[in-house]
Amino acid sequence: MYDIAIIGAGPAGASAAIFTAKAGKSTVVIDSDKGVTRRAWFENFYGIPEIDGPSLVDIGVAQLKKLGAEYVLDEATDVSAIEGGFAITTAGGASFQAKHVVLATGFSVEFGEKLGAATKPGTEPRVKTIFDVDADGRTSVPGVWAAGTAAGVSVHGIITAGDGAKVAINLISELNGDRYVDHDVIKPKG
Ligand SMILES: Cc1cc2nc3c(=O)[nH]c(=O)nc-3n(C[C@H](O)[C@H](O)[C@H](O)COP(=O)(O)OP(=O)(O)OC[C@H]3O[C@@H](n4cnc5c(N)ncnc54)[C@H](O)[C@@H]3O)c2cc1C
Questions:
Q1: Ligand 1: residue whose CA is nearest its atom 31
Q2: Locate the FAD/NAD(P)-binding domain: which residues (predicted)?
């Protein structure tokens, strides 16, 4: 059983996976790769003067893989609660078990609704429905978190990516029983 299953690998899901995998939490990312980010052109992403959406998404997926997360290109279609976590099945017929789930499904809340996560109307342009989350990113279902557009944050790449990181840090902190920080320092030369 994985520690964490992340549904969606746009900026929110990929960023969450980068943090959870780097923290040593076994992480599977299930992604249908149909997000809005592939259509975007970014000139407002801090530290990156300009980048096209497909490149941003591809770099994010490569980065989460490099840090040890398993990436599955598939659509998560069904989910049920099992002892100690959740069982997820995909359109491609695969199944995964995870103790915790992060919903980073962009404009879609369909999969999370199957889990019973409460929703509410969105407030951002064109975002109809979002998960009802607390300040840390917890949904109404214990063990299920939401991040990014699906959690109602401003629909901008850097904000959804930051929200994915925030939710991951809160989840890691809960698992560790201690506030988590991920700070690397410049390696000494030579
Ligand atoms: C045309 C356009 C231009 C934009 N321009 C800018 C810009 O200039 N600057 C800026 O900051 N922002 C821009 N944005 C917005 C930005 O792309 C989004 O705010 C942000 O990237 C959304 O990230 P996300 O991770 O929440 O969602 P997404 O990137 O949509 O990712 C959601 C992922 O979840 C997956 N998913 C959903 N359901 C399932 C399921 N059941 N199983 C498996 N996977 C699933 C999807 O396939 C997708 O890969 C633009 C958006 C558009 C559409």
A1: 10
A2: 2-109
